[in-house]
Amino acid sequence: TSAAAAERELAEPYLRQVLDTAGLAVEYVRAEGNTLYVRDDDGAEFPVADFAGGYGSVLLGHHHPEITAYARQLLAEHTPIHAQFSRHPYANRLAAELNRIIARELADDEPYYAIFGNSGAEAVEAAVKHAELDRGMRVSELLGSVDAGLAAARAAVADGSATVHGEAAARLGVALAADGDEAVRLLEAAIRRRNDEIVASPPLFLALEGGFHGKLAGSVQLTHNEGYRLPFKSLGAQARFVPQDSPEDLNAVHARERRVLLGLTTENGRVTVTEHEFPVFCAFLVEPVQGEGGIRVLSRAFAREIQDFCARIDCPVVVDEIQSGMGRTGALLASSRIGLRGDYYTLAKTLGGGIAKASVMLVREKRYRRDFEIVHSSTFAKDSFSSHIALKVLELLERDGGAAYRRAEERGAALRSKLDALRAEFPDVVADVRGHGLMQGLEFHDQSEASSPELRQIAASGLFGYFLAGHLLRRHRVRTFPTASAVGTLRFEPSIYVTDSELGQLYAGLHDVCTLLRKQAGDELTAA
Ligand code: PMP
C-alpha cells in the first residue's frame, strides 16, 4: 500500500542512521538568514545558529530577501529555463562580470572563458576534461614535429646527405646495418614503438595531500581521502599527491614521472636522437584554503612554488575555489590574496545564492580550446534562472564598493577571535585554529588515548567531530560539522550576517565542549 511504501525508508537510510548515532539526524523545516529551524515535539519551531552554512553555499544567508524576491520575479516572468542551444546573453553577462572582478583582483585583464555546470564536482570535471583536450592537442602538435624530424632524417639518409650516428643506433638497440636506409628505418620503428606506448598511457594529475575536489568518477581521483577515492580508483586517471610546503616533493614527483618522446634530428650530415618533453601531467589541482582537508590555508610561499613549478613543466594550474571563493575570505578569489594565479578556476556553492544549483569553470584565454564547447554540455547548465541568480549574487557582493567582502573579513575576524580565545584557554584540548575570513576551523587534539572510554570509542569510530557537533546541536542549538577528510577539525562557515550574539552562542557551546573534553566527561558529551 502507499502508506506502507511511505514508511519504508529508501533515501539513504544508512546515512540517516549514522547521523542518528551522533544525534544529528534532525529535520530542518525552515531556513532564513543565518538560522535553520527545527520543530520540537510540541510542533513549535526553535532556531539553530547555522555555522555549517551549506558547507559554503550560503555566504549571503539562507533565502536572502533580494535573491528570493528576484527568483520569484524570474519565475513570474516565465524566464526560459530550458532553452538549450540558443543565445544565452545572461550567461554571457555573468561571464563578463566574473571577468571584470577577477581582472580587478589579479590586476590583469587576460580574459577567462566560462563553461557552466550544476555542481562543484561538475566544474572540476569540466576543468579536467578541458585540460585533457588541451593536452591531447599539444601531444598531437608534438607528434607532428617528431614526424617531421623522422621524415627529414629518412630523406637525408636516402639522398646520401646524412648517415645514422652510431650512438643513436646503439641507444635504441638498432644494429648499425651496412645499409643506411635500413638503419634509419629500424631507428624510426623503434622510436615509434616507444613513443606510441608513452602517448597511449593515461595522464597524471597533481594534487595536494588533504585536497578535496569532488566525488564524481573523475573528480574523486583528485580527492586525497582514500575512503572516498580508492574504491573507484579504476574509473579514472590517477593523481600523485604532494604534501604542502614541500617543493622537494614537487621536483621528486616530476623526476619520477616525467617522460620524453624521442625523435631524430639531422645536422652536419649526422642523424642523432632527440628528446622531447612529453606532457605527462594534465593539471595541478589546488585549493587556496583546503575545506574538507581541515581548513588549511595555502601559504603564499608554497603558492609561488607551485606556480613556478607548473610554469617550468608547462602544467596548467586548476585553482579550486568552490568552497573558498565567492567572497568568503574577503575577495571573490581567495587565491588572489596569496598571489596564486590559475589557468583554470572553479566556482560553485554561493554562486547559486543558496537557491540555484550552479557552477562555473573558467579557463584563461592562453589555454582556451574552443572545440571544448562542442564536446561538453549539460542539459541543466547555463540556464537563465541560475545565471540570473548568480548575477544577483555578484551584484550583492559588489554593492557599496564591496561592502560584503569587507563584512566577510570583519565577521571572520570576530569569529576568529572567539576561536583563538578558546585555544588560549584550552591548549590541552584545542590543537589549532586555522582559516581566513568566514572559513575557519578548530582542530581538537586526538582523543584515541583518552582516559574516558566513551571518548576513546568515538575517537576510534572515525566520527569524532560528528559527536561534538551532535552535542553542540542538542545542547547549544549550534549547527557545525567536522571537515569531511579531517574529522578532528570543526568547520565554521557562517553567513556574513552572523551576529555577535550567534558568535557568543558558538563560543559558549565550544567552551562547554572543551570543558567536557578537559574533564574527560565523554558520557556527558555523548549523552542524547
Ligand atoms: N571542490 C571543493 C573545494 C569542495 O569543497 C567541494 C564540496 N565540498 C567540491 C569541490 C565538490 O562540490 P559539489 O559537492 O558541489 O560537487
Strand-helix topology:
Layout: H1 2-7, H2 13-21, E1 28-32, E2 35-39, E3 45-50, H3 53-56, H4 65-76, H5 89-106, E4 112-117, H6 120-158, E5 163-164, H7 166-171, H8 180-200, E6 204-208, H9 226-229, E7 239-242, H10 247-257, E8 259-267, E9 270-278, E10 281-286, E11 289-290, E12 296-297, H11 300-313, E13 317-320, E14 344-347, E15 359-364, H12 372-375, H13 384-425, E16 430-436, E17 439-444, H14 453-461, H15 464-476, E18 478-479, E19 481-483, E20 486-492, H16 500-519, H17 522-526
Parallel strand pairs: 3-18, 5-9, 6-7, 6-10, 10-13, 13-14
Antiparallel strand pairs: 1-2, 2-3, 4-15, 8-9, 11-12, 14-15, 16-17, 17-20, 19-20
Helix pairs in contact: 4-13, 5-13, 6-8, 13-16, 15-16
The protein binds 4'-deoxy-4'-aminopyridoxal-5'-phosphate.
